[in-house]
Amino acid sequence: MGKWKDEIQDHPEVPPALNASSFRCWDFAPGDVTPAHRTQSLDYGIVMKGSVVLELDNGERTTLNEGDTVVQRGTMHTWRNETSEWCKMYFVMIGANPVEIGDKKLVEEFRAAK
């Protein structure tokens, strides 16, 4: 299984500042699992090669294949490459205010992978 590298720690500008944007390319090795995380941004993810599973904190899982696109805002999620092939994704991230539900702000959060 591949080892996850915390790019957020090494590049604090990710996710981008409010009203800024960034474009990232991520390669997920076979078996890679990201930490569960939520970013304070509006994110567009496009699967360019391979397949990846998007898992939400409620356990809901969606398999995305080459050419699929996902849009996320304030979700706690994990990316899992459960295949024997590499997966390449492009992400456009747009800095935003935190999502608010009642009195609670859903700010950035990172948890260890399960």
From TrEMBL:
InterPro entries given in the database record: Cupin_2 (IPR013096), OryJ/VirC-like (IPR047142), RmlC-like_jellyroll (IPR014710), RmlC_Cupin_sf (IPR011051)
Record-linked Gene3D superfamilies: Jelly Rolls
Highest taxon, organism lineage: Eukaryota
CDD domains: cupin_BLL6423-like
Domain Cupin type-2 span(s) in chain numbering: 26-92
Protein name: Cupin type-2 domain-containing protein
Source organism (scientific name): Mycena chlorophos (Agaric fungus)
